[in-house]
From TrEMBL:
BP GO terms, sorted: carbohydrate derivative metabolic process
Record organism: Ectothiorhodospira marina
GO molecular function, one term: glycosyltransferase activity
UniProt keyword Plastid, yes or no: no
Pfam families to which the protein is assigned, alphabetical: Glyco_transf_4, Glycos_transf_1
Organism placement in taxonomy: Bacteria, Pseudomonadati, Pseudomonadota, Gammaproteobacteria, Chromatiales
InterPro entries: Glyco_trans_1, Glyco_trans_4-like_N
Keyword field: Glycosyltransferase, Transferase
Domain Glycosyl transferase family: 177-337
Protein name: Glycosyltransferase involved in cell wall bisynthesis
Glycosyltransferase subfamily 4-like N-terminal domain: residues covered: 16-163
UniProt KW Transferase keyword: yes
Amino acid sequence: MSLTILHVEAGRHLYGGALQVRYLVEGLAQRGMSNVLVCPQGAAIAGAAGPFCQQVHELPMGGDLDLGFVGRLRGVIRQTRPDVVHLHSRRGADVLGGLAARWCRVPVVLSRRVDNPERPWAARLKYRLFDRVITISQAIREVLLSEGVPAGKVICVPSAVDMAAYTGGCDGSVLKEAFGFSGNEIVVGVIAQLIPRKGHRHLLEAAPWILARHPQVRFVFLGQGPLEDDIRAQVRDGGLESQVLLAGFRDDLPSILPCLNLVVHPAEMEGLGVSLLQAAAAGVPLVGARAGGVPEIIGDEAGLLVPPADPTALADAVIQLLDDPVGRERMGQAARDRVGRLFSLDAMVEGNLAVYRELIR
């Protein structure tokens, strides 16, 4: 049975949730489904997902207070007559999108990608708008259940990684060309938006201990965000300008990640951690804070877990792996095997499609 799914994605850049939507619409199209995409004007996903969609509607999307978005989305729903509306974003798309779909009497699904707690009374009221809520990790599902959302409404379908994109191995010239490195450095990467909950400051606090043991380490922060000035100030105040590089957003991660020696994710809160999936797919061992869905990726074999917001434990874990190159290589292979087994594109697409079909039935 072919279905038409209307997807709403509010992200402007092609990473995180938006990248997952790109994977999903391609997988659905391969299975004979029809996709309609609603996204902000000028969003990168319009071009990336467009080939797999029958229609792409770039609409003004002004956030949670943009009440006019309800009417604009209603117009698209009435024009395209989808079987299901799938809301992939929280800010500016979840409540307003749910109201528009309800108004048009179309089944509506929400993807929940963050583990931020909500007030239980507000959560119970909000999630009445949605027929199903798809969480990208069991940790997020447990948050919703603790807030009183009915268990039968909340389905876990983990995010996925395109394993094939990270099979090329490391070209020895990549880091030299991208960052000016000589080739003698030990490169530790952090792949995350520059926002408070990603915990960059904890790694910067741990950095002096790590550098005292391994002075050839260079930390590369891949990502952008509102904390850039604060992080630069912390780097400067700590005398770390020559050891920490803020590299911004990169669209060449498949060539960069295989050349990293280690990826660290010091987040205080994390829905799952798509950047960890990407690093693991490239065979890079991981150090992550035991927050949200991060343990679901790292498990017992893909890396080391530490308490959140604990620079001392973070430094110890990083040093432990840097001291053991053989163990690090073994752990990197285990990381690749784990994410390939548990976070495949096919499993993610089939999981979402099963939710749509169950609603239609």
